[in-house]
Amino acid sequence: MTTQKRVLAVIMGGGRGTRLHPLTQERCKPAVPLAGKYRLVDIPISNCINSEINRIFLLTQFNTASLHRHIQGAYHFDPFGGGFVDILSAEQTEKSADWYQGTADAVRRNLMHFRASPHDLILILSGDQLYKMDFREIIDAHTASGADVTMAAIPFPVSKIEGLGLMKVDDNLAITEFVEKPKDPAVIAGLTLSDAVEKKLKSKVNERHCLASMGIYVFNRGVLREALDNTMTDFGKEVIPSLLNRKKLNAHIFEGYWEDIGTVKAFFEANLALAQPLPPFNFFDERAPIYTQDRYLPASKLNKCSVDHAVVGDGSILSNSTIKHSVFGIRSFVDDGCVLEDVVLMGSDFYETEVQLKENSAGGRPHLGVGKNCHIRGAIIDKNARIGDNCRLDAAGKLDGSYANGTVVVRDGVLVVPKGACIPAGTVV
């Protein structure tokens, strides 16, 4: 069987996305905008398509409307290839009427949907990571080793493994131990790589490495069914440890760029990194493009702007302003005299008509985007936000919490203007 016919991909859409709140206040994690014109879900889907895997299930349950619209508008497969991206939301059944209780529970409840598509292997992916991987490599390694389960693993120096699930492997990369987010230094020391495996790594630092789980798994079909024939709810905490010494578990080492962007701070930093001259993640690789919805927007316009490292999405208008190290989403608007530094402006879902602009002006309501003479630094401005003239928004020195009568939130040291918020002219935070 070809890769397409052998493998089903399952993307975990996550729970409520509390670590990304307020960006997930009105949308699920996979639908959060990324890099000016994409959504988080475009990353795993594009990796699948570039790896010749075109049968993809997306499991989610909270605030899925915008995700549905994006998937329906972006991913259309020809009828001869048998490809699809199918969203499976939590549903009431004879056996259960509540929400998914975790990653394993979500997959368990949807096994009946997977059966309709012939397959030997199931590739399980996370929906909130930024990386490029050719999944054919991990699938080939899984097949060659005769493993029951293969986990993608990324080597991290011991000093940087906080909050990650770690595995111990032998010289043949067979997994002998797995510990979810260990904190005890003695336990961590026992999970470091052997000299033989260290020598195989491309990264050479004066520090021992541990292998961290990327939340990417390849399961043999029957093994997955057997592994979920219980009440376990989470792969990392329960299912994988339960399979040790019962099934053959192998690691597949990945040494490319990988970032878990499940928190506001990580999301903010990953976006701003794309404005660097040589960003760690390459959206310009024609051999492995990142796909998204084609919106047929006009080219962006920058009128008399001073720009120092920026990503600007389609259909944007930036006027007579100073831009430093920032990312602008589709249909972004910045009026005259602004200074924006370290800003992620997600743009808008629509353009305002002349009539709407006149009505807003008459009612004292700011137009979509950023008004005149605003100074903004260290901020995420979510979609369809309205910021009036002469506002000063700066995260520096601010404690996490709500500001400006609850219209602005500081989270993880990042100032966030929520989706659809309206910031009155002259607001200072």
Question: Layout of SSEs?
Answer:
Layout: H1 3-6, E1 7-12, E2 33-34, E3 38-39, H2 42-50, E4 55-60, H3 65-74, E5 84-89, H4 103-109, H5 111-114, E6 121-126, E7 129-131, H6 135-145, E8 149-157, E9 166-169, E10 175-179, H7 185-189, H8 195-200, E11 209-220, H9 221-227, H10 235-243, E12 249-253, E13 258-260, H11 264-273, E14 301-303, E15 306-312, E16 317-319, E17 322-328, E18 333-334, E19 339-345, H12 354-363, E20 369-370, E21 375-381, E22 386-387, E23 392-394, E24 401-403, E25 408-411, E26 414-417, E27 422-423
Parallel strand pairs: 1-4, 1-6, 4-5, 8-12, 14-16, 15-17, 16-18, 17-19, 19-21, 20-22, 21-23, 21-26, 22-27
Antiparallel strand pairs: 2-3, 6-11, 7-13, 8-11, 9-10, 9-11, 24-25, 25-26
Descriptive tags:
single chain, 429 residues, alpha/beta, Spore Coat Polysaccharide Biosynthesis Protein SpsA, Chain A, UDP N-Acetylglucosamine Acyltransferase, domain 1, 2 domains, 9-stranded mixed sheet, 8-stranded mixed sheet, globular
Q: Determine the structural class based on helices, strands and strand pairing.
A: alpha/beta
What is the CATH architecture assignment of the largest domain? Alpha-Beta Complex
What Rg, in angstroms, do the CA atoms define? 23 Å
Any idea of the CATH class of the largest domain?
Alpha Beta
Walk me through the structure.
The protein is α/β, with parallel strands linked by helices and 429 residues long. It folds into two domains: 271 residues, Spore Coat Polysaccharide Biosynthesis Protein SpsA, Chain A, CATH 3.90.550.10; 123 residues, Hexapeptide repeat proteins (UDP N-Acetylglucosamine Acyltransferase, domain 1). The protein contains twelve helices and 27 strands. The protein is globular and about 70 Å long. The mean pLDDT is 92.
